[in-house]
Amino acid sequence: MENSTQESYLRSDNSVTYESPYPLYAMALSSTPSVTNLNHQCIALGSFIEDYTNRVDIISFDPETLSMKTQPTVSFDHPYPPTKLMFQPNRKSSSSSFSDLLASSGDYLRLWEVRESSIEPLSILNNSKTSEFCAPLTSFDWNDVEPQRIGTSSIDTTCTIWDIEKGVVETQLIAHDKEVYDIAWGEARVFASVSADGSVRIFDLRDKEHSTIIYESPQPDTPLLRLAWNKQDLRYMATILMDSNKVVILDIRSPSMPVAELQRHRASVNAIAWAPQSSRHICSAGDDTQALVWELPTVAGPNGIDPSSMYSADSEINQLQWSAAQPDWISIAFSNKMQLLKV
Length: 343
Prior knowledge:
Blueprint: E1 9-11, E2 15-19, E3 24-29, E4 41-47, E5 53-62, E6 67-79, E7 84-87, E8 99-105, E9 109-115, E10 119-125, E11 137-142, E12 149-154, E13 158-163, E14 168-174, E15 180-187, E16 190-195, E17 199-204, E18 207-216, E19 224-229, E20 236-241, E21 247-251, E22 260-262, E23 269-274, E24 281-286, E25 290-295, E26 309-312, E27 317-322, E28 329-334, E29 337-342
Antiparallel strand pairs: 1-2, 2-29, 3-4, 4-5, 5-6, 7-8, 8-9, 9-10, 11-12, 12-13, 13-14, 15-16, 16-17, 17-18, 19-20, 20-21, 21-22, 23-24, 24-25, 25-26, 27-28, 28-29
């Protein structure tokens, strides 16, 4: 590539589209502005190539000019498609003025230092006792209260809590009866997980012997795929079921009975994200090519809840993130495109 920055995007007033050379799945938005330009936001995009060698590209987005730029020097090879990417939450800009931390999951949990013009691999965190085998990680979540802590979920039924500063396992729990598909922190020492066994379970690191089941799939053994904890109101979380058009809203004070079910998608829901600045808004996206933004009412009416706004993509939406640094923007990934939507 001749030039240091590649620009490959389309824009309208309410959306900006970036086209990648490969199919996209994992996506992360930096929690703070870019280290080099306070108006910009960094976006990490992971490829979904059915091969060992995959890619992660770091893109810079300027909401004022609605432009995106990629820099080849800050993209890197990744073993297998990353199942999740996430920038360190609540990073203090002054603590490390020219770098950001990025985590990725796949075969292992990996940490990367994202600098202005380079990427440095920091660590590979592997808790496997046998070097020739590792159970793939389905997801992870970075604790925003105590950011030295990351929790991972695995197909081997466990959740592992890492102290990433020391590079050691804080604890490993057999969390479910089957594969664990997602994990989300609520408080400093409280996390929840969802599994192929169809349950949502809450764990407290201060009492590792017990977990609380707060929801189970209405049909036995229907896997729960994703979990999102409402950071503006920790009483609420959302989950989605495999091959279902429903988003299930849970109140942890009343286990087993959802407080709402959002059922306006016309095909399977693939991703959910709570608004970072509002306790009553959530976005969902799915195989019907729709991204729907919902405002949850205080009391649901008899005919269910309709979305407050709707966006259509060109194909099935696999991934969704709501920007904490720029809450007016939601990003979605479909096929080989990433699109930022103004909400």
